[in-house]
Fold these 2 entries.
Entry 1:
Amino acid sequence: MRKASLAHLLVIDKPRNERSQAQNEPGRSRLIPRAGYDRLALMAGLSLVPISIAASEFFLSIAVVLRLVRLARSQTRMDFPRCFWFWLLWTGLEFVVWVQSPRPALGWSEIRHIILVGSLFAALPALGRKKDCRTVWKAIFITSSLSSVFLIGEFFWRLAHYRREISAGGDAGFYLRSGGLLHHWMVYGTVEILVVAGLLSFWSVYREERRRWWPSACINGLAVLLSLTRMAWITCLLLLGIDLLWRRSKWILALPLLPVALYVLAPSGVRLRLNDSSDPAYYSNSERLQMLQVGWRMVRDHPIAGVGPGRVESLYTSYLAPEDPVPAYHGHLHNNLAQIAAQFGIPVTLTALLFLAVLFRDLVRARKIARTRDDRFLTQTAILALTGFVFAGLFEYTYGHSLALILLCFAVLPILVPVAPEHQRSS
C-alpha cells in the first residue's frame, strides 16, 4: 500500500475565485491584503498551538491585523453569532470591575484573555470553509503528536534519572511531570484535552481515515497517561464515555475497566502518582480544598465586585488562619468558577454562566440539524471540547491558559460563526 504523504494528509484548497476576483479589480493597490492571507496566517497560528505560544500568537496577530484592515476597507463584513452578545455583556461587566479595582495593573492578564477571545471572534470567519477547519485539525493532530513525543521521551528520561529519589519516597509527580514542548504540565494537559476532543470526533465521523491517524491517537493517548495530570486523566475518560454513548457503542460497558488495565500496565511512576493523588492527605488535595475555602471567603467579603482581577495571590494569605499552611503556589484558586467569582464578584460570574448556557444550547441545536459529515465533526468536536474545558475547570484554572483559550475558540466557534461573504460561494 502506498504510504500517505504529509501533503496528502493536509489538503489545503487554494481560494482560486478569491484570487482571480482580486486580480480583476481595477485600481487595486498592492498594499491591500488579499483575502487569502489572513486565512493562511490564521491556519498557521491555530496549527502551532500545541507546540509554541510565541509562534501561535505571532501568526494569529498577523491574521487579526489583516482581518481588521479588510474590515476597515469594507472588503468584508462581520456577522456575529448570538452567543457573542452574551459574551460581550460578560466582557463589559469585567471591564467595569477592572477599572474600579484598587490595582488595575494586576488584572492585565485577565483583560488580555478578553482581548484574545474577542480577536478570535473577529478572525475566525476568515476560515470560511469547513474544509479549512478540517485541515487545521489535521495539522493540530500532527503538532500535538510532536509535543507528545517529547513528553513521552522526557518522562522515561526522568524516570531513569530520578529513580533513587522516587524509590526513597519522593513525589513521583514532582520528579516526572513535564509538558512536552509547552513545558508546563497544566498548559499541556488543558490543550491536550481539547486535542483529544478533536481526535475522538474525527475518529467517529471519518472512519475511513482511522488507518492514517491511529499513530497520532496512540501517541496522544500515551502522553496523556504519562503526563501524570489527574485533570487530564479524568476529563479524557469523560469525553471518551460521551463519544461512546453518542455512537451507542457496546464498548461503554468496558470503560470502567480501562483505568484498571492502564494501572496494571503503566510504568511504576504512573502507579506511584495515582497512589499519592488518591490519598486525601496528599498536599495537592488539601491545598485545593483550602483554595475553595479562601475563594468563598473572598466572595463573602466582596460579593459585588470581588477582590479585583489579579489580586488573589497578594491577598491569599490574609484569608488564612495562622495555623494554615501556605501553598507553594497560590496565584489562582485552581477552579474557574471560584477564581472568576473571587476576582470579579457574583454578577460577573452569573453573566459568565449565562454565556456558557447559551453557548451549550446553540451547539446542541447545531448538532441536531447537522447533515453533512463536516457539520457533524465540527459540532461534536465543539460540544466535547467545551465539556472538557468546563469539567477540567473544576480542578484547574483552565481559563487562565492563553493557548487553551485559542484552541477552545477554534473548536467551538466555527460552527456558529456565519460564513464571511467572500467565502459563501466556495462553501
Note: Confidence is low (pLDDT under 50) at residues 1-9, 11-33.
Entry 2:
Amino acid sequence: MKVTTEIKDNDLTAVIDGRLDTTSAPQLDAEISPKLDGIKSLTLDFTNLAYISSAGLRVLLMFQKKINQSDGKMTVVNPNELVSEVFEVTGFSDILNIEKR
C-alpha cells in the first residue's frame, strides 16, 4: 500500500493505493493519525484502493471518531465496486460520508 498525503490549511487529503488489510492498516494509522491534530476535513481518496478488510474498516472508524471529536468531517471518495460493496454489507455506508467524484 502507498499513502500520499497533502495538508492545506485545516484540510488533510490522503490518497491510498493498493490494499488496506491486516498488514497495511497499521501503516495507514501511523501515517494519518499523527497529522489529525487541528484537522477539520479529512478526505480519503480510494480511487486506487483495490481491497479493504475488517482491519482497514477499524482504522477508518478510528479516524472518523477522531475527526468527530474536533467537529470535523471525514469523506471517502471514489471507492471501487468491491470496496463500496464492503461498505454496504458492513453498514459503513451509513456511518461514513462517501462520495463519487
Note: The domain at 2-99 is CATH 3.30.750.24 (Transcription Regulator spoIIAA).
